[in-house]
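Standup notes
- DV: blocked on the single-chain target, sequence here:
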Amino acid sequence: MVIKFHIRYQIIVWSLVIIALIMAGGFLIISFTYQVQDTSNTIIEENISNIRAAKELEITLHGIRAISLNYIIDKDTTWVESLREKETEFNRVLENAKESANTEEENMLIRQIAALFANYMQNLNGALSSEKQGDTLIANALLVHGSRDLINTIEDKCSALVLSNQNAQSDYERRIRRNNDIIRIAMYWFGLGGLALGLILGWLVARILLNPIYKLVLKVR
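- DV (later): unblocked, structure below
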């Protein structure tokens, strides 16, 4: 009776140990999988926001250029009001891009865009001031310089920002694929480990069962 109880006790203990190891491994893999999914979703959402902000900057600049050229042609003051509205819109989009920037390269490009746009607005204000003073030639020269050279430079920086975001997206996709590969390999090893632990458990159970029986047989003999 004591031998049977001892055998059962050992079987239960080893079974619980093996089951605990298998459950712990499964829990770790599941936790890692959820963590990877959450991180991937966050990264994708942030990168989409970055690309959207960079493209909005380009679109707003196109509108500013068009309004500037229209003002050069007909000198209608309503275009100036439209420029002020576009200035507010551009600064808002620029602030969104600044908040969603993730890398030092993106932050540097955004600072350059902000500085260039401030230079453009200073150039525009100088043109409007010259226009009020009757210096039409100087005003037109400043407006042409702003709508051509400065905005072209800002657009180049915006395109570089879009390219930087696209490169970051490619990098994120590689990281996601690498994490998926890690999860897949971990699942394979977990399956093999479960099989190995099952074999070990079977061997231990057989050993625990057979050793006392063998000793008992020897004593009987």
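- Follow-up: Confidence is low (pLDDT under 50) at residues 1-5.
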